[in-house]
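INFO batch 0412 | record 1 of 1 | parsing
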Amino acid sequence: MPPYDRLKAVLLDVDGTLLDSNDAHARSWVDTLTESGYNVKFERVRQLIGMGGDNLLPELIHVGSDSDEGKALGERRAKIFKKQYLPALRPTRGARALLERMRADGLTLVVATSAQGDELHGLLVAAGIADLVDETTSASDARKSKPNPDIVAAALERGGVEPREAMMLGDTPYDVTASRRAGVRIVGVRCGGWSDADLSGATAVYEDPADLLARYELSPFTRASSGG
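INFO prediction complete | emitting tokens
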């Protein structure tokens, strides 16, 4: 990792980090694949949530996301998710309050998610943070999704910052890998369902956004914002 400058931007994962949605995404994939004749277990799909469909589908059923079948499955999953799961989703504990604190500190907030672009607005509204983010990037802005670093690089460009001026907030091992490959520090949260061991490589790990906010003055975000 390179030397770091004073923190200017926070790159934000959404699903599992700011929105309690990882189980819902897994279930929408299970529903879709079962409907198409594939026998997949929820537990197996759940382990892969945090990747984009371009990585998830080949891993699960050896089907490319750009194939005709892959595209059809992705479209069907999006419809199922939006109709059956999205309306019931709720923010993770403290999500909005944490972002309000970050904005008060003058930090630019950039969404860096593997979610599809046409799904992103609904996710931000469900998380109660749509009005707080400065810029957004999604799977539509990246050649490959997490754990590849493309989306993190796109978020850095959108935020107008260098890797040494940014820090990411995420909940999956795929967030950790993507951010570190891009040269960006990451703080992890466990509310997406992963353990400290799973998030190895993060600068620090907290239970959820509320836990991070409660200890914000001693967190990497405050230290980096002050140049420490």
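INFO post-check: The beta strands are 9-12, 108-112, 135-137, 166-170, 185-189, 204-206.
INFO record closed
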